[in-house]
Amino acid sequence: xxxxxxxxxxxxDHFMSGPEKATLHAHREALIAxxxxxxxxxxxxxxxxxxxxxxxxxxxxxxEPEPPMVRRLERALGRQGSAATxxxxxxxxxxxxxxxxxxxxxxxxxxxxxxxxxxxxxxxxVLRPGGRLLFIEHVRSDDERLATWQDRLxxxxxxxxxxxxxxxxxxxSIGAAGFSITQLEHDSMRKxxxxxxxxxxxxxxxxxxxxR
Length: 212
What we know:
By secondary structure, this protein is of the alpha/beta class. The protein has a single domain, classed as Rossmann fold (3-Layer(aba) Sandwich). The protein is 37% helix and 25% strand. It has six helices and seven strands, in the order ααββαββαβααββ. A seven-stranded mixed beta sheet has the order 3-2-1-4-5-7-6. The longest helix is centred in the last third of the chain and has 17 residues, at 144-160. It is globular and about 45 Å long. The N and C termini lie far apart (34 Å).
């Protein structure tokens, strides 16, 4: 783990406090409440979604690949007295059997995974047919001018954001991985630079069969 990775994890909640209050908190509260049954959250980070899981969740499993984030996630679970399971694992290689979960949750994660199509195929694999993917992600802009700047500056964003891409066509990638988008809202994430403002919030259903 790099020194910057440790610094990034230690400061994450602080520098995300503005966008959380201005935009993300309300979206998390509304969306995560829809999760129920056997739930998997990838990239659990510092546990920002934990307060919003309701009584309909039978079992909650969280994966996180970064050791400093795993430690913060475990502390967050301890403070809440949650019985959730935490595993260190990348989204591209989930250690679960096929059809293991009813719902998967991804919030500000698909921008950072090294191989987005593979991560989405893994989510499709571990969800039962008809299972739901709930997501909040910042994405490539529909505005051509902003999208051009996202492409030009993505290398800088990758370094400063510890692997975070600002120009991924995530909604299209979700569809290509074998999901059907069932709800989708576009928003602008406030209190952040323009490159990472375009935001999508929604849900997708896992179609039967393996994606191509």
